[in-house]
Amino acid sequence: MFKNIVNSYIIIEHNRVWKKKKMFKKGNKNISLYNKKLEQNKYITAKLEKNLENKKELIKEIVGEEDRCIFIIDSNGCILSKDDNFLRIWNKYKVHKEKLTIDEFLRDNIKDKLNFINSIEKTKKHSTEIKSDIKSKDGRFFKVTFTPIKFNKNESIICSFKDITYNKKNEIKTDENNIKYEKIIETIPYNILITDNNNILYNSKDNGIDFNEKEIKRIVLEDSITGEICYSSMGKNSYMNIDRTSFKDGDTHKNLVVIKDITEYKESIEKLKLSKEKYKTFVNIIPEGIYLADYRQKNIIYKNLAFTEISENISLEEDILLNNDILIASNKNNEEVVFKRKDVLTCKGEELNLEVGKKLIEINNEIKEIGIVRDITESVNIENIEREIEAKKIANKIKTEFFVNMSHELKTPLNVISSSIQLLEYIYKDKIEKEISKELNNSISIIKKNSYMLMNLINNVIDLAKLESEFHETNVNCYNIVTLIEETCEEFNKYLLENDINIVFDTSEEEIVSRVDDDDIERVILTLLSIVIRYSCSNSTIYVDLDRKGNKTNISIRNKDKYNHYKYINDKYKSAIDIGFKVTENILELYNGDISVNRNNRNGIEINLNIESDLDICEYKERGSKKSENFIYTEYLRMCNF
Questions:
Q1: What is the count of structural domains for the chain?
Q2: b/e map 510-545, b = 16+ CB within 10 Å
Q3: How many CB atoms lie within 10 A of CB 354?
Q4: Helix 438-468 × helix 631-640 angle, to 10°
Q5: Helix (H) or strand (E) holding 117
Q6: What share of the chain is helix, strand, coil (3-state, %, to 5)?
């Protein structure tokens, strides 16, 4: 029984109490967790309430529940009946106790003050409602409605402010973006078009393409046409590239078409092709062989016609590409191509002299070898001929020296003959004057004539030898060559009148200064005049003309219609005359001049010569009397021999 009582009242109760405690402990633990979660939920709820409040404020601003305020302006310019929103929008007036005037309000808050006042005046004047956009000093925008009313028999105005800052700024931003995008489109160098099925609705720019022209409009509106298109405009072929895409504008199907005018590009391509052909033709007409080879593969990529012709009869290609003896210049440091000579035999056994050079260049990141092959067989032959000529010149120089020595030896007996003639003329002076002995006169005349010719020949040989050996002495000074030549012509002219020959001198300038030896110039003019006069017929006119072109003075001596070509051909003393002409050529070379003779017309002769003039020299030396008075006459007898 005791056991039952203990079991029933103690153990069972104890177990029940223990279970209750355990349940309470578990409940307390759950309560702690619930409290913790509740605290978290309170924080989340507070945050949600704050977000909700912010959203409410945002909704109010968007919807516009609190973006308006209304006040009345009485006839005295005071603001009456301000609502709560007025104080919210213009919160500085919450503590303002005094009566607020419109002037104070505008001064403190409105930037477009004049616009506001004008709107009030218009409302009063027309007694009608006026709306205007007003900007405040803090950067906000308002749509203000001015409504006239009568209040206590006084005219007043109700001003209704609506805050449109958000919309206005969006509008300004939109306008700025539109301007920016328009400028971007304007700077794009292509035409951007918007089209529907039948019309061109928009064109970004006018670049010379007439999109109203029937054919061009058809091309633009045809959806299937894309890529490069050739069309005819004003009788000329033009080109454009078309890209297009479609889009929907509401319920309307539209196309965006981008058109690039590629006429210039196509023309440039054509010009490039023509240029390529021209250069190819140019390279082919070059007499030198040119080839382009792959340096690593050792194969020729291109060769011109000259190279093909040179290599026809010889195995040239393989020999050039594999020959390491030929120096190759790189493209760096401006290295020049070094040419090396090669002597080869053709299939016919003929000797061919070549000159070969190579250079490395980079084309599209690949090393190429460009080479030039010259056929110098003719040049080598010319070099051999020049060596022979040089050897002959040396031999001629030896001969000239011999002739000079011989000329000096001949002068001695010639001087004896001349002296003897002078002695005979002195002894038989009376007989000669009275012409008693014609035989004596003829003999003396013949001896004198041949003495003059021989003396002239000897002097010319000596002078020619000196000139060719560069031993000719000159006394160079500044002279007016117009005066030198004119005086020589005038003096020479005195002795020609008896033969009815006249010298006419003409010059384009009165002063032409040159650095010359006056004796050399006189000798040149006398020699050339004597050549022309010697073969001129009676009643002839010899024209001597001077003209300056730049730093060159041109001198012309001519007989136009009465030149005896037959006498010139059959002159037994022609070789002696030619030696005198050669002396004249060499003298002119001393003054950087040259000479030419024109005998194309059998009835005329023209000798043209030129010498250097000095444009910077203004002062010159007057020529003194160096010769005896009968010098010109002696030269006249010696050279002309009439």
A1: 6
A2: eebbbebbbebbbbbbbbbbbbbbbbbeeebebbbe
A3: 21
A4: 90
A5: helix 113-126
A6: 50, 25, 25
The whole-angstrom separation of Cα 453 and Cα 460 is 10
**pLDDT tens for residues 316-364?**
666 666 565 555 655 555 567 777 777 777 777 777 788 888 888 887 7
Greatest Cα-to-Cα distance within the chain, rounded to the nearest angstrom: 220
Crossing angle between the packed helical segments 438-468 and 574-590, to the nearest 10 degrees? 40
Q: Which amino acid is at 231?
A: Y
Say how far apart CA 394 and CA 468 lie, in whole Å.
Answer: 12
With CA atoms as reference, report the closest residue to 439 among 455, 424, 426, 453. 424
Q: Which stretches of the chain score pLDDT less than 70?
A: 1-66, 81-83, 97, 151-152, 184-187, 189, 207-208, 313, 315-335, 396, 399-400, 402-404, 406-408, 431-437, 469, 471, 497-499, 600-602, 624-642
Rg (CA), the chain: 59
> For 175-218, what is each residue's pLDDT tens digit?
887 777 777 666 676 778 888 878 888 787 776 677 778 888 88
The reply to whether 367 and 332 lie within a common domain is yes
Domain membership flag for residue 279 = no
Q: Which domain holds residue 403?
A: 381-454
Instruction: For residue 523, give the amino acid letter.
Output: R
Helix (H) or strand (E) segment spanning residue 143: strand 141-151
